[in-house]
Amino acid sequence: MNIKMIGVLGAGTMGNGIAQVAAQSGYQVIMRDIEDRFVQNGLKAIDKFLAKSVEKGKIKEDEKKGIIARIKGTIRMEDLKDADLIIEAVFEDLELKKSLFKQLDELTRPEVVLTTNTSSMSITEVAMATKRPAKVAGMHFFNPAPLMKLVEVIRGIHSNDDTISTVMELARKMGKEPVEVRKDTPGFIVNRLMMPHFVEAIRMVEEGVASVEDIDKAVKLGLNYPMGPFELMDLTGIDIGLHVTEYLYKELNKESKWSVPVLYKSMVRAGKLGRKTKEGWYKY
């Protein structure tokens, strides 16, 4: 399939990052969100990122202008009707995603591939909200999308080979390194490995085994990871991590390794949401 225009549903951190990557790869992009302020914030984030790239000499000013010119922001779902492929990047709410895919199914041409950037949720269940489940797949980018090389391409039960091939090839054309997740399992590859890592780190703090700072230091120096678990949660958002972990606990037979420590919930309820303050992660 000849893809010229990509529709991105959502202008938040992941949505605007994906829109930028697509535009930098030469595609025309329609980026849609529910309110104009979200769209404008997304466009500003792209402009800010590209401005820094110009300052660092990674791209030229003319290139920046060309990338921006290829992105159209909108609040109208109807503006996605001419897209050749859709990437949905809204909040991790399964019912919301299913509702949006039902609308996209009715709006776009039957041959258009519909993908979701979900980090953990069932591709098959999202696909069944459409009349084209064979044309639905997961296309999971990582944050920040312009910098992270990995894209997980997830095969739903009904996804056909042509769909997976199209999404894999698109990821490569965007300069990414795709991996195929052959079975539609909650968490896919990365989150299936990462979330227990987060949970155990929080549990060790809860049990008084070590401090946040020392756990991060131990992981970086002992495992040679570039970031510790708390630093990574701070980047990705602990509220999102909690939401995904609770989903995995429900979907994966309520295994004990997915059970959420009380401290995990307390940190989110305290309003920290994984963002550091001058006092540190949290105070009791």
Notes on the protein architecture:
The structure is a single chain. The chain has 284 residues and is α/β, with parallel strands linked by helices. It has two domains: 5-181, Rossmann fold (3-Layer(aba) Sandwich); 190-269, N-(1-d-carboxylethyl)-l-norvaline Dehydrogenase, domain 2 (Orthogonal Bundle). It is built from eleven helices and eight strands. Strands 3-2-1-4-5-6-7-8 form an eight-stranded mixed beta sheet, with helices on both faces. α1 (13-24) crosses α2 and α7 packs across α10 (238-251). The longest helix has 20 residues, at 36-55. The protein is globular.
List the helices and strands and how they pair.
Blueprint: E1 5-9, H1 13-24, E2 28-32, H2 36-55, H3 61-69, E3 71-74, E4 85-88, H4 94-107, E5 113-116, H5 123-127, E6 136-141, E7 150-155, H6 161-173, E8 177-181, H7 190-206, H8 212-222, H9 229-236, H10 238-251, H11 262-269
Parallel strand pairs: 1-2, 1-4, 2-3, 4-5, 5-6, 7-8
Antiparallel strand pairs: 6-7
Helix pairs in contact: 1-2, 7-10
